Amino acid sequence: MLADDPVALLDGRLDVLGAPSSGTGNTVEDLLSDVLDTVLGLMAADTAAVLLLDPSGRFLVAAAARGLEAEVRQGARVALGTGFAGRVAAQRRSIVVDEVSPSTVVNPVLIAAGVRALVGVPLLAGPELLGVLHVGARGERRFDDADAALLQAAADRVAPALRIRARQADRVAAQALHRSLWPAALPAVPGLDLAARYVPAGAGGASGDWYDVLTVPTGAVWLVMGDVAGHGLPAAVAMGRLRSALRAYALETDDPAELLRRLDRQVRHFDPGVMATVLCAVVDPSCGRMSLSSAGHPPPVVTVGSGPAATVEVPADLPLGVGGERPRRTASLLLTRGATVCLYTDGLVERRGRSLDDGLGILRRTLRSGPAEEVCAAVMAALVGDVAADDDIAVLVARRTPGGARPEDLVLDAPATPPSLQPLRQATRMWLADARVDRRRAADVLLAVGEALANAVEHAYGPRRGGVALRMRAEESGIVAEVRDTGRWRAPRGQRRGRGLTLLDALSDEVRIDRTDDGTTVVLRWNVPDRSGR
Amino acid sequence: MTTATVTPLGTADGVCTLAVAGEVDLANAAEVEDRILDHTANDLVGVVLDLDGLDYLDSTGLRLLFTLAARLEISQIGLELVVTAGSPVRRALEITGMTRMVSLRPPGEPGPT
């Protein structure tokens, strides 16, 4: 039965919950669970439930319940203004129902649970509606205004803590989402030396800045720098969608303006209200041709070899998500060997007490041709220094590797499956161009390496899964390719097989196949007496 | 992903010409074979595969060609390949002895009538 002074008792019980990081646990769910147990006991009720306003602000969704667990399991949703909870939310005041029936309640779970009387109150944190708290009774118990006041007192105690925890959860989710969407490591791209930095704004939240580097089957490499307007979880979610859509379109077109046109249409249709600036560039690392298009994004800065850096002249077309279909334009430039290009978000060049033009000037004076990691570090030192950023900063530096020197080893790992073959060959093709191997020899190397890779895929593992590793190395005396798997080759099977080894023999100057218990390594060698002259 | 296209260029005097372009390896050889066979009707006298647009052909692709040649031989349908002299595909065909099994001619040269 009811305690003598329920409000005082409530205070005692809920003060613990009121503190943002106390209670039995730290999550929204822990808090709600504590609240429901408390009101259930204090009010001698049979059921209790919390419905929270969803991000659209138009629906209440069951978040926690006692005696009505099905409500949560079924993901009950009530539109604002309809049903019992919907009316409580829309009117922002307590409502008491003495006889539960389909005319007063829309949720069949309440009726099925045999609830006959209800009292519900809004969960308000200041002017902000968070949701609805209601309790119900199955038997003869009816609720009156005093019950409503008690429940409202409980709701008012809990709402601020609920809001703080929900925001913490959002911030953690935004950061986790953001982290998961950033490239864990930049892809190894033969012919390009890449480095990147991302620094979140001082507040430590996550926003909608992103960069991406993607290789596509044609051998082209897309460099992307984008900035979704806004902060927090909504911006991070919008950024995630944009990034995925952009990746899909990058497989379908080789024209940055066309890609941005499609992306813009996608944003305006599926994510109205989202606005983003994006700079999209596509590079052919073998010849250095770069095409780029800008959706309202600051232009990249480029330096060719020793000369001073310059801002790339990219026509500034509209950001994504604003206006209708307008033609988008593509600019192009040639990245000569050693040329270095820097893509960035406005957080790098713009800051309090410094104009964008001044920032750009510093960037142009700082950018030089050199190893991408060093250039990236120099750019961050010159433009950020030790001042905490007031906006997110993303920087991507790409240098076309200088000619003459021997290329770095190409080291790749892939699952030993047929779809891996084409990308591995593509990387090999790029590396051979970088190593300046002449065309005819390059074709031989490509086919022999492709054969060795296909052998590993076809013969090494059987139905078991495994990987295949490729290493290409340029030496003084020639080129060495190593294809390694950790399986045991079985004998060729089926009719008309065994041509792969014939090809390996005929195409290379030396073939060695090392079979051990740990796997098989195919080592292929080509003697190239003098590559520098070609 | 490895991609290849098989395009019928027309049939004249019972000889069907198909252009195979792109790349053929383990990932798509079966699919390419199916598409070639789709265009290989039983009443044909000969099949010409124009491989001029083919950038990559490994032993899986060669196996496809050998199998196809053998099948067509049983059906008494001739097979001819169009490949540029000195191209990587031609080289792979030569190394594996394909040239002894089917006739090859460079693009632009009319076939035997």
TrEMBL record, chain A:
Q: Which UniProt keywords apply?
A: Hydrolase
- Residues annotated as domain GAF: 27-173
SUPFAM superfamilies xref list = ATPase domain of HSP90 chaperone/DNA topoisomerase II/histidine kinase, GAF domain-like, PP2C-like
**Does the record's keyword annotation contain Hydrolase?**
yes
**GO molecular function: any one?**
phosphatase activity
Which InterPro entries does the UniProt entry name for this protein? Answer: Bact_Sigma-Reg, GAF, GAF-like_dom_sf, HATPase_C_sf, HATPase_dom, PPM-type-like_dom_sf, PPM-type_phosphatase-like_dom
Please report the stretch or stretches of sequence annotated as the PPM-type phosphatase domain.
Answer: 189-400
What name goes with this protein?
A: Histidine kinase
Lineage of producing organism: Bacteria, Bacillati, Actinomycetota, Actinomycetes, Pseudonocardiales
TrEMBL record, chain B:
> Which stretches make up the STAS domain?
5-113
Tell me what this protein is called. Anti-sigma factor antagonist
Q: Tell me the protein family, please.
A: Belongs to the anti-sigma-factor antagonist family.
For this protein, the record's Pfam families field holds:
STAS (PF01740)
> So which domain of life are we looking at?
Bacteria
Write down the PROSITE patterns for this protein, in alphabetical order. STAS
One molecular function GO term is: anti-sigma factor antagonist activity
